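Amino acids appear as letters; backbone shape is given numerically. Here is one record.
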Amino acid sequence: MLETIKKTVLVRVDANRQIGIGHAMRCLAVAEYLVGQKCTVYFAMQSVSDQLRPRIEDAGIRIVPLTDEQCSSRGLLDVATSIKASFLMLDGYHLDYELERTFQENNIKTLRFDDYMPGSRCYADIVVNASPHAELETYSKWAPDAAILLGPRFIAFRSDMVDGFVSKREKIDVGSAAAERNSILVNFGGSDPLDMTVATVSALSNALPGVTIEAVTGAAYPNAERLSRLNIKKFRHHHNSGNLADIIQRARIAVSAGGLTVQELALFRVPTILAITAPNQIKGAHVSWCKTLRTDWQSQDENTDNIIGDIVRESKILWRSAEERAKIIERIPSELDIHGARRIANALIKETKHDQ
């Protein structure tokens, strides 16, 4: 258990169609646990979609809108000082490492989520990378003074996902799932920057007639109304849903872009086709447990018809072959569990930063 003394945590993260909402959602997972332990949590955001805002606030988290000046290291420190924050959590490739050094110099403990170490030295007190292939030796050189939290034990699942997993755990057994798992789940992240959902759903419905397709779109997705109007008999659209765990448990296979959804699908042991839709997904895709497509993807000028063609081909194979589905499931790390958010929160606000 964490101490009951009230502590204040500032989270620096953004969420929009360009950035996506995955960074904010994994911060939300940790923040939910912190709020449950009587911490006060603020999200400092320069951009946040109108649909995501109530989801954050409903979790008991306060949003601080940032000006350009407040996004600088000194400006953000002033924000932290004004709310008496003792801890800072950072998530986003656009957030400069000078933030960490400034906060370190002012005795505010800092945690950074990282996915691929973009270059310069990291000054955070704690670094988190939940990839099963992240290497301690490499991270120790990049962030020599940090506590390094690596591997699937530090995947941060939101409370709704954890609750869904716990309440229906008996349905997750791979051997008994075939009859209950009768849909294809399609998700291209919270914003779908290449606008692939509509075309993918249409192509899959033509290739696998009679199969139920469920599309999940996030708060930053701009074409929800157009998607909902598709004239497909066995099709359901879930926009900004709070019941993703239930939707996942109905899926025999899934098509997803890189990000938190891939990890959520793995938690429920859903064989997933991973379609690269952004350059920052490529490195992680090479070490993913999914069936990965288009790791040579270069830009948004990529012909999405080719990508969708690959998705349809692999979906037909996986839908029909229990053996191929089992091969993907067997690659999912056995140490993946529902306690990552708790472990990250404990590491951030406990007294000794190097105890794990």
Q: What stands out?
A: The mean pLDDT is 87.
